[in-house]
Amino acid sequence: MSNIARSGRAFSGVPRAARRNGARRLRFFLAVLCARPSFALGYAIVTTVVAIALLAPWLVPYGPMNADPSMYLLPPGGSHVLGTDGTGMDIFSRVLFAPRVDLAIAIVGTFLSATIGGAVGAIVGYYEGQHSWRRALSTFVMRSADVLQAFPVFVFAIALVAVFGQSVKSIILAIAFVNTPIYLRLMRIQVLSISRLRYVEAAYVAGASDVAILRRHVIPNAIAPLVAQLSVNIGWSVLLTAGLSFVGAGVVAPTPEWGSMIAMGFQNVVTGQWWPSVFPGIALCITVFGFALVGASVEVLADPARRRVLSGSLR
Predict the structure, then answer these.
(1) pLDDT per position as a tens digit, 205-230
(2) Range of 106's domain?
(3) Side-chain-facing half-sphere of 155: CA atoms under 13 Å
(4) Residue 125 lies in a domain
(5) Are the C-beta atoms of residues 182 and 229 closer than 8 Å to each other?
(6) Global pTM?
(7) Is 251 in contact with 245 (CB distance < 8 Å)?
């Protein structure tokens, strides 16, 4: 009976310990945000943009694609807070709806590239230096990545969209394609250093398979730089999506998207109607800036050495 009671107490203590660890991590995270206001600003911007994207249908006063020719290029003020564009569509409604398209494309494309690049990079880094066909395959993959990165990213993305056709899926594939070499190289460098550590060699001597070593020992300890890079690349992918739309190779108008909105209003800037381009541009800049700040914070929090230094400075 006493054994059962002890077992019950031990079992009930596991969630309690997990809650304590979670609370400790949360306190440390909040302390970091208080010590680094730029990190807090980044999380605030990203949280706000994501919330706007999710709640846009309930926040906008007008339909994002409802055009009213009688409201042609109205200046900011009145019932149209940010004015209207050259087709009579409400700019405020379109600016709030645009993150639904931009973030969806950027997040899916970035995670796809991180998954493919991380997996290939782990294999390449683990087998590099071995005298077999695996070494030749690793060399071929790295030289192929060199060739891909030799092309200007924006021109390469335009070429991919031209090949696959102008659609949201094509933009996602283009983003994934141009970002994959970044994650491949990051994971390769991490795996190269980790695979030579003693605990990995001990697992190999103990008879663990290559798949088990990669899955249990190498990849979990090598993934931190990829997580930090994700946030930066999401912001960069939002910018790339807007750039493709600006030159006419991205999201097709009148779908609310920041790049296409800037392109639609650009011709009116020279005649003094600046608001159709300026307000989407400001929203785009703030969003990219927020993701860059979040990426910087994740890079610090994911690095154990820098996290220990930061923890010591907070005491």
Answers:
(1) 777 777 777 777 787 777 877 887 88
(2) 88-314
(3) 5
(4) yes
(5) yes
(6) 0.81
(7) yes
